[in-house]
């Protein structure tokens, strides 16, 4: 039986199609080299339809950064709400979750790198990402400190550990280049865990 979509559902689907096309093209070509006409073509819509959903090319770029960020924020900013157990178990579960989240978002990771590389060009978006990092560090700080107290983790600055961990996640776009994602995920999980320095016999 064919599913009949409401007008609102059709609009949401079309907006999502345009946004996904924008993320793809912005990630490959960057902001300046990506034309709205190319996004429309990729999405299979008319040039004017893009502006039905997004006010401008700049607004579309902002949404391409901020909307996916909102989707993943809870898994970075509510660590102890989402992951349970002793610090080592919390970190293991967190790493597996984060890598799974990003394993299908290599294009989005490329967009993030564009912002981090040009804070002067995208100050508002850079601030959003910078705030994201700060809140993540605050969220995981007590977990790392408790893990250090129990002897699981290195006696290193919790902030430095957290920032190094985010760097590994950001670098995943360089790693997920073929079909061997499951192997890659295990390797990255192992390397990410070593940043925290869990003692193997614990």
Compact description:
The protein has 202 residues and is mainly α. 77% of the residues lie in helices and 0% in strands. Helix 1 crosses helix 2, helix 1 crosses helix 4 (57-72) and helix 1 crosses helix 8 (106-117).
- Unreliable runs, pLDDT <50, ≥5 residues? none
Instruction: Sum up the overall morphology in one term.
Output: elongated
- End-to-end distance, in Å? 55 Å
Major beta-sheet overview: none
Evaluate the radius of gyration: 19 Å
3D structure, described in words:
It contains twelve helices and no strands. By secondary structure, it is mainly alpha-helical. Helix 1 packs across helix 8 (106-117), helix 2 crosses helix 3 (47-53) and helix 7 packs antiparallel against helix 12 (181-196).
Which features does this protein show?
202 residues; mainly alpha; elongated
Describe the protein's topology.
Elements: H1 7-33, H2 36-43, H3 47-53, H4 57-72, H5 74-77, H6 79-82, H7 87-103, H8 106-117, H9 123-149, H10 158-170, H11 172-175, H12 181-196
Helix pairs in contact: 1-2, 1-4, 1-8, 2-3, 7-9, 7-12, 9-10, 10-12
